[in-house]
Amino acid sequence: MVWPGRPAVLLGRRAECALFDRWQDAVKAGRGGALVVLGEPGIGKSALLDHMASTTVGFRVVRAAGVEAETELPFGVLHQVCAPFLATLEHLPGPQEDALSAAFGLRTGAAPDRLMLSLAVLGLLSEAAVRQPLICVIDDAQWLDPGSAQALTFVAHRVGAEPLGLVFATRHAGNGLRGLQEVRLTGLGPGDARALLHSALHVPLDEGVVERIATEARGSPLALLELPRTLTAAGFAGGFGPTDTAAAVPGRIEDSFRSRVLGLPPATRMLLLVAAAEPTGDSALLWRAAGRLGIGVSAATAAETDGLLSIDTKVVFRHPLVRSAVYRAMPTSQRRAAHRALAEVTDPSEPDRRAWHRALAAVGFDEEAAAELEGSAHRALARGGVAAAGAFLERSVALTAEPAARAGRALRAARAKQQAGAYDSALDLLALADRGPENERRAADSELLRGQIAFARSFGGGATSVLLSAARRFESIDASRARDVHLQALAAAMLAGRLGDECRIAEVAHSARRVPAASVPRASDLLLDGLTLLIVEGRGAAVPVLRRAVSAFTTEELAPEEELYWLWLAGHGAGLLWDDESWRVLATRLLRSCEIRGAISILPVAAATRAGLHLLSGELLQAASLAETAADVTLMTGAGPVAYAEVGLAVFRGRDDEALAAIRTATRDSMARGEGMALTYLQWATAVLHNGACRYEQALESARQAGADSSVQRIRNWALAELIEAAVRTGHRDLADEALRELCRTTGPCSSHWAAGVEAQCRALLADGPDAEDLYRTALGRLERTRLCAAVARVHLLYGEWLRRERRHLEARNQLRQAHEMFVRFGMDGFAERARSELSAAGEPTRTRRSWLGDQLTPQERRIAMLAAEGCTNPEIASRLFISASTVDYHLRKVFRKLKVTTRTQLAWLLQDAQPIPADATRL
């Protein structure tokens, strides 16, 4: 609180004010960031924010606040923050401009993805901050609506090299605010507490009473100002009344406000209730509603005199606890009357707010109000407000009497809740929908939604049986839909793998085979047919159909939902065919589709898939960038797949401690979620790590575990190659022979260079004399025609090791030198050390690893440098890395200085295999 007569000093908060001053200086200097002010109600958060806003120098300050009654209305607080800058929307990239325009109802069109919307807000505020340093102050952040919360916390985590700051005041730091700089407010010290208390008293008090109030307030500034109002005359005289020191201070404060409200005249209480029910603070609206209720202007006098609220151009409650105390203190009948009056006077240009008030005023069933809420839900979905749509529809269900309409609305509400991640609420609504009149289509849709919720929660485990049941329901209703849902069930079964019911994959495949084929098959139909043929009839029957499916996904125009839902599975099909080029095309297409559409839920999968190809190609820097992207999104959303990219990167780098720790964590995650596909990947990765470090017994055990999975898992097929190498090195020839036979069953029907190269490499490990040499040369010849450079380096290593054992040291050194140089260049330190050791044993002096110029860059600088070297513009880099263009420019300038380059062409040459910069590199 502010000391009376000295407004520049905030009583008891000198340390916090000094911290804010330092933070403000850093923001103004272009080191943007966020602060989170934490504390219980009444502890002084709003007072501190007021002080911060009033003492900024050279900043534009934008203020907004969450309101408890509006937590389910879409983008309310976000609009408060962005409204002053909407005139500059046209400066944003097209997809971002479209996302913000749709969210704020400035245009009609597809609902914006939440990540794209968040990027747009970052771009809009960063652009404004370039013109004038900007601080956004958000009070009562615990009541932000979900859309506003996600966008604003996203900006808070991504703001960097611009004069932009955000300050959040909240009772507790939710997921989105964790990791930001915190200022945790506690109660005032004894001296400051007593000083504040005395400043608010108008009569002298007995020291015993002062001590009692200070003790009960526990340093809460609001309590120190409010608790004296609750004392009786006897209490003021001597303080002999009972002391309830066990009561929570916020509860005591709200009780105090409630008592004060109930002591006001009836008309004043009703005016306060109308103000509490309409949180926009529109005083004109308040007086229109008051007129409907016969409340005159004089009713405001008592409330303003008592200090509960002020009415000017805006209606402002003294504290959010006043609003909640007013609303809870009034009987239900009066609440309905207040909402009814507000509905009647709300402008038709705000149909959603009017519909919400009308719904809260309704008694019993009201079809007209329910229909209006349904219309509001449609508008909310068009703006991307899935949480708001769920709230509108959920309320409409309660107002609907007709059983079939009630069940239909419950199903639509459940779908919106599922999209918003409110799974428990969605399941409750599905139970309501199932109690409606019998309807096959609704029952099938309900079962499908249950399966999708189960899939979202477990990434496979537990979802297969529900999705399969839904698929069978659709068979008699919509064959095309039945095939789509069978494909979803198959994907769930494949993800569950060994951790699911072992017969489920076969059961889903056989069930799908019974559904009539499409007369004109879509890409997804071909994929379903190819995968089910593989399971039911084997690889020989499946390969031609899988090839057609992969070709369709790589060449045909696809609907956005097909791209996002099925490209990863089509990429899996390409992996089963050992078709690395199609896999590359599909993985790149999926990643770009996610970036363009801002598909945040799919992005970690897309990034991990593309990172896998970079790893096999020896492009560890690019893989690292994507691994960090996947980790960023998972951190932002709190959900995502097992950390495939992070594990793969640590393994290929050969960093034992880092890799083994990541594998242990990911294994726990995959077991907990029932994600068997991830478990197979982790066992394959463990085998690669141990083979690279010549720990062949450990590699053998991990590879055997991975190789025990179904042949429908592409990673299992890769593990067979690791198993063969480890088995040969440990003298288990029978295991190696068996694994080779199984590997050849996967590579034989395929005609790719990757398949032929891996098969030749594994045959060479088991061969002797000239046959082995011919096979190694064949493996090199085939793999060198791919972009899988890490695989090429491993063949050079194996060939060199074989030549050394044959005592052909000169030839061995040539192969081992190539392997060593490639591994060093890629950053595959484990395999590089193995090659170095073999090279030394072959008689060539060992060489130390040359320092790569990029080593002096930070991880963020490396990511930006790699994308710039690929030719991406600053806005494109910003979109890919979820940062602002200003931050990209800041880091890129540092990269140029560190690497002593002046153009992007020079940067590309420098980062490509550590090439020297050509003298004629042109400036871009």
From TrEMBL:
Q: Where is the HTH luxR-type domain?
A: 850-915
| CDD domains named in the record | LuxR_C_like
- What GO biological process terms does the UniProt entry carry, in alphabetical order? regulation of DNA-templated transcription
Q: Which Gene3D superfamilies match?
A: Winged helix-like DNA-binding domain superfamily/Winged helix DNA-binding domain (1.10.10.10)
InterPro entries (alphabetical):
AAA_16, P-loop_NTPase, Sig_transdc_resp-reg_C-effctor, Tscrpt_reg_LuxR_C, WH-like_DNA-bd_sf
Any one GO molecular-function label of the UniProt entry: adenylate cyclase activity
Q: Which GO terms describe its cellular component?
A: cytoplasm
Alphabetized SMART domains for the sequence: HTH_LUXR (SM00421)
Q: Which domain of life is it from?
A: Bacteria
Identify the keywords attached in UniProt to this record, alphabetized.
ATP-binding, Nucleotide-binding
Matching entries from PANTHER family are given as:
TESTICULAR SOLUBLE ADENYLYL CYCLASE, TRANSCRIPTIONAL ACTIVATOR DOMAIN
Q: What is this protein called?
A: AAA family ATPase
Q: Which organism is it from?
A: Streptomyces fagopyri
